[in-house]
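[agent] plan:
  1. take the single chain provided in the ticket
  2. run structure prediction with default settings
  3. attach structure tokens to the ticket
  4. add a short note for the reviewer (M.T.)
[agent] executing step 1
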Amino acid sequence: QVQLAESGGGLVQPGGSLRLSCAASERTGRLIAWFRQAPGKDREFVAAMQWHGTTTVYSDSVKGRFTISRAGAENTMYLQMDNLKPEDTAVYYCASGQPNWGSLRSPSMYRTWGQGTQVTVSS
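[agent] step 2 finished; step 3 output follows
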């Protein structure tokens, strides 16, 4: 059974940085992605990348501040978050799936999800 597990969340001041990790039991699915969900909000796409490739996609709200990556052949994906803002506060989830390029921002296209890690940006 494929499993995903996020870690690295916490409390950080505005302008600070945080790195999230997503450990996967295996590299299954075409893409691995990050989503976030704030209280009272729908789940929002953050970033995605190929397990077997270098193509990356970012939401406009985080582009230039966040970086999605993976470490060599390890089954671990990272989200480096810089210049954090209060509006980045949310539970962050990693997910894997086989979405088409035109639908990769839709949560419904991902079948496997982690349990989430809380990120709080506050002074």
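[agent] step 4 note for reviewer: The first strand starts at residue 4 and ends at 7.
[agent] ticket updated
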